[in-house]
Amino acid sequence: MSEHKALLILHGKQALNEDVRAAVEQYRQQGHELAVRVTWEGGDAQRLVDEALAQGYGQIVAGGGDGTLRDVAEAMALAKTDASLALMPLGTANDFARAAGVPLEPANALALLARAPVPVDLGEVGGQIFLNMATGGFGSQVTANTSEDLKKVLGGAAYLFTGLSRFSELRAAHGSLSGPDFHWEGDLLALGIGNGRQAGGGHELCPEAVVDDGLLEISILPAPTEVVGTLKNLLAGGLGLDNLFVRARLPWVQINSQENLDINLDGEPLRGENLRFNALPGALKVHLPAGSPLLSRGAALPAN
Questions:
Q1: CB 278 within 8 Å of CB 123
Q2: Does residue 201 contact residue 284 with C-beta atoms inside 8 Å?
Q3: What percent of the chain has pLDDT over 70?
Q4: 56 in Cβ contact with 5 (< 8 Å)
């Protein structure tokens, strides 16, 4: 495997993105080797990662939104590779990249390949891997039901618009959550299980999460009647909900419910009554900027 031989796995919708093309060309002109492959349908990210590793690529860049990032990170984790991952944020929300401080400009994102990667944790549930966050309850329904056309017009505000328009459908789910020295049971409106901090277009559900502590941050919004009005204010851009959350940082958490819970894994839907979420410490090497807020020590390793 060549440590500095890089492959960009680019979401198909970004194939004609001129900023991406210019960034790739600039990177190559600097003397670096960078190949590009484009996804077309489900399963392509897995196939392209497998092919890249077989061909000796030591650096893989995920070019797309949070869903593309999850797909590439999962494929790399399942391969148990020593190759490293870089992010080129090209989606609507880019929740993980924004929280991590990764530049949104393609050329600046590629420049992070020059920095030594750091081992980061991943989350796992039922054999599925996620890098950023699993969300449940109303928040996951909003994310899943926000149309692609609306996201093109409104960007991250599309999640807010969808949340307000669907507010009358708000319904609590009942469940119990257990982990080491932790137990909570009751009705909940929203749930975040975070390796990263934000989801759904910038909503910071897990504000203390970091990616190198071997823990997941559990964030539960209970559903007493008085919370409903406050939640509407939150969706409208208001503040005041933070002190209503129940939070814990755990290496694993078991969720049990008498009905199927709808969970969103960075865009990948999941349903189940009994789900165990595990942190996978140091499972993937990722290129992050110096001083990334998602690193517990506040700084990445020095550049190579």
A1: yes
A2: no
A3: 78
A4: yes
Instruction: Provide the 10 A C-beta neighbour count for residue 106.
Output: 25
Task: In whole angstroms, give the CA distance from residue 245 to residue 249.
Answer: 13
- CA-based angle 109:111:115, to the nearest 5? 110
Quote the CA–CA distance of 232 and 117 in Å, as a whole number: 40
Give the chain's largest Cα–Cα span: 61
Among 178-187, 188-197, 219-228, 291-300, which is the least confidently predicted range?
A: 219-228
Token look-up 């090497």 returns 285
Token pair of 28, please?
């190559």
Separation of alpha carbons 55 and 41, rounded Å = 22
pLDDT confidence of residue 241: 54
The CA-CA-CA angle for residues 206, 211, 216, to 5°, reads 50
Verdict on whether the full-model pTM lies above 0.70: yes
Beta bridge partners of 276: 254
Q: Cβ-count burial of 295 within 10 angstroms (0-12 exposed, 13-18 middle, 19+ buried)? A: buried
Per-residue pLDDT tens digits for 50-97: 999 999 999 999 999 999 999 999 999 999 999 999 999 999 889 999
User: How large is the C-alpha radius of gyration of the chain?
Assistant: 19
Question: What is the spatial distance between Cα 151 and Cα 8, in angstroms, rounded to a whole number?
Answer: 24
The residue whose two tokens read 């199927």 is: 260
CB atoms within 10 A of CB 181: 7
Residue 271 pairs in a beta bridge with 262
Strands 2-10 and 33-38: parallel
Q: How far apart are CA 16 and CA 78, in angstroms?
A: 30
Give catalytic residue positions.
268
